[in-house]
Amino acid sequence: MTDALKLIEPKRSEIAPGVAVLRALPTRVRRLVGAWCFLDHFGPVEGEAMQAFDVGVHPHIGLQTATWLFDGALLHRDSLGSVQPVRAGELNLMTAGQGIAHSEHLGTECTRLHGLQFWIALPDAVRDIAPRFEHHADLPQWRDGDVSLRLFIGEFAGYRSSARVHSPLLGLELHAPTAQALTLSLDPGFEHALYVASGHVRSGEIDVPAMRLLVLPAGADVLQLELAAATCAVLIGGAPFDEAPLMWWNFVARRNDEIAAAREDWQAHRRFGTVADGGVRIPVPPFDLHLRAAGR
Ligand code: MN
Q: Where are the domains of the chain?
């Protein structure tokens, strides 16, 4: 049944009392969609509960982080000196490469926070590149009927995002204020999955409620959707990632010794630099040695 549609229920992970995130990738059933290797859905939260999403200084290697908000604002700071708010409909894309540290704080005007945090595994040939940060506020946006589409990564329907990624990838937001049918042409060479953040989607015989990831069969070249009113979903895709990323804490590597070295460097205040006004520096957890390479 590897070629059937698969519906994934994200794992709930409590990050503060009463405040949970939903982890749709990686899961036991599916670890990668193209190079997309991590997907957390947070919120919507309001008031005091938002404080759980004010995250102090921590390191990354071997990945890109993509922050995509539906509501609210976060302020990104990093060890390159970047200080950049991100709001709904804008993309913050941070390339860790050989190593970067960053923090994320609630935007001053933020009264309700709702969004996604993605990680993209860097291919072996570039995973040691210098760190880099990009903000994209002017992304391709169009309508199909009453559905608003916004392309944050890759190419779709003749549009192209200027976000720089290192393997063929797609990130497309769909927002339907009213109930709509929508047919999307897909690249059959990509793997695809649809995460429904709010509302409800039906695809053929499959009902996809909010907070579920629908993984499409390999080779799919079309996606037919019936979107309920007030639906917000994100379609991700990418060329099959024929490498096995090893993920531990905030690090994506290939071998245990690389993870161990990054861990030691963070403890010893080496490699990752400092983040001005980044707040508390997050300590690395104990090394558990139970590392596992990701694979589809
Ligand atoms: Mn981070």
A: 2-238
How many CB atoms sit inside 10 A of residue 281's CB? 16
CA of 58 to the centre of ligand 1 (A): 6
Q: For residues 278 and 76, is the Cβ–Cβ distance under 8 A?
A: no
Ligand 1 centre distance from Cα of residue 15 (Å): 14
Residue 223 one-letter amino acid: L
Can you give the pLDDT of all 296 residues of the chain as single tens digits? 446 789 999 999 988 888 899 999 999 999 999 999 999 999 999 999 999 999 999 999 999 999 999 999 999 999 999 999 999 999 999 999 999 999 999 988 899 999 999 999 999 999 999 999 999 999 999 999 999 999 999 999 999 999 999 999 999 999 999 999 999 999 999 999 999 999 999 999 999 999 999 999 999 999 999 999 999 999 999 999 999 999 999 999 999 999 999 999 999 999 999 999 999 999 999 877 555 555 44
* Cα of 84 from ligand 1 centre, angstroms: 14
Structure token pair of residue 139: 């992304």
Going by C-alpha positions, the residue among 282, 258, 251 that lies closest to residue 37 is 251
Architecture of domain 2-238: Sandwich (2.60)
